[in-house]
Amino acid sequence: MIRNPILRGFNPDPSIVRVGADYYIATSTFEWFPGVQIHHSRDLANWTLVARPLVRASQLDMRGDPDSCGVWAPCLTHDGDRFHLIYTDVKRYGRTTTGGASGASLRDFHNYLVTSETIEGDWSDPIYLNSSGFDPSLFHDDDGRKYLTNMLWDHRPGRNRFAGIVLQEYAPEEHALIGEPRLIFEGTPLGLTEAPHLCKRDGFYYLITAEGGTAWNHAVTMARSRSLTGPYELHPDTYILSARDRPDAPLQRAGHADLVETPEGEPWMVYLCGRPLPNRGRCVMGRETAIQPMRWADDGWLYTASGDSIPQRDIPAPVLDAPMPAAPIRSDFDDGLLPIDFQWLRSPEPEKLFSLTAHPGHLRLFGRETLGSLFEQALVARRQQAFCYSAETVVDFAPQSYQQAAGLICYYNGSKFHYLFVTAGDDDDRQVQVMSALPDSPQGDAFSQVHSVAAEGRIQLRVEVDYERLRFAFRLEGDSDWTWLREQFDASILSDEASAPGLPNFTGAFVGMACQDTSGRRLAADFDWFAYRERAYLTDPTGAAD
User: Are 28 and 89 in contact (CB under 8 A)?
Assistant: First the structure.
């Protein structure tokens, strides 16, 4: 069986392509660098992260991009010669359509194209396409011509901001869009029309879009036309996949889909989904990627294989390859390369934030700006991919000032995190404390009690997460007993749903390491290793073994 989601943790807005026997899915990374995640499979069930194509400043520089902006909704295609990757870099989010939102309705999003002969790259420098909206997608017609679609943003008062889907031809030889854009689909009454993808079958052009917003009302809409420019008629059911009327479905928020065919011509759909916490209804792992088989009916329309238009948790798998070996629990930073599971925030100049060679066998973080800075944070983290996990690290850090801190962080964005940090004490010692940024509390931040520790020696830091319960502990390296902070922290704030009205929340929970030095001296912290282990629920994590 295939157990959904196939890409666990923050992996939204999937775009899928098959080249020969190989399948690739590209997903959004927002403010996390490098940009775009690409997973590979040969059986649609077992997926491995193989590439992040946007690796240099000429391709992507997100310094200054707000939280949940940056790289939105990539589209990965292949024209028989090269891979084409389209992406948006969102520079300003502006006002949402959420009641109570504040700010202008203006947004800045720039759409680009990069190409490569192989998934591993080297990917080209970007070709600028347009800035009229987001979710761009490239369609290769069977006559060799190429077309860009994207949703159209209308900022004018009283207008539908999600103004529909526009189409414009792309000329590869000119590296530019040509002709005028044409509005080909205005959407349905569900609204918030976005995420267009085109495909062609039996003389029809099929347009897939997402509607309803990327939360509980999300849906996949289909329309078709004999002409590329329309008019497009709606599917008999309008929405071919959604959980919006099924609160019992284990996969919620289903939408933003794309299609692929197996070599045998069987259609499969990938789409984003969310798994809410049972007690809180919040999706701490953000929007994940799921897959399920579809079928073309005699009427020429696409339906789920089950016929009920509901996202499925478990589905029969095609012939499977041998499962991929499990990722190592512990990263020792010994080979001078950052493990592929880890990312950092915004900057294309990681050498200003961290080093894997300055202290061989360690990840050295250079103390930089505060948590929540939109420019240069020294924060390296990996996705939370299960409801229950343990994470641990050890840090060598000798702060001389309360303006210097380093530690273990559970992070969603600058307004949502729990941070177990080491800093300088008042009596020639160090202190350990937790700072929490709380998005849904009258008090925006909160601090735990202070624990004094010796001025010298490496400190082990530990977090245990069980659904919405989060507990921290620490000890000097070599000690046998852990000191547990008495507070129980709310892990559910590390979610899309925990937010003040109107803010963008499109990523997911991460766990990792961070270092700040607001004095400007850039004091470094050395992390010898980092361990992340998914596990069963623990009734009392304080009694669990190391």
Answer: no
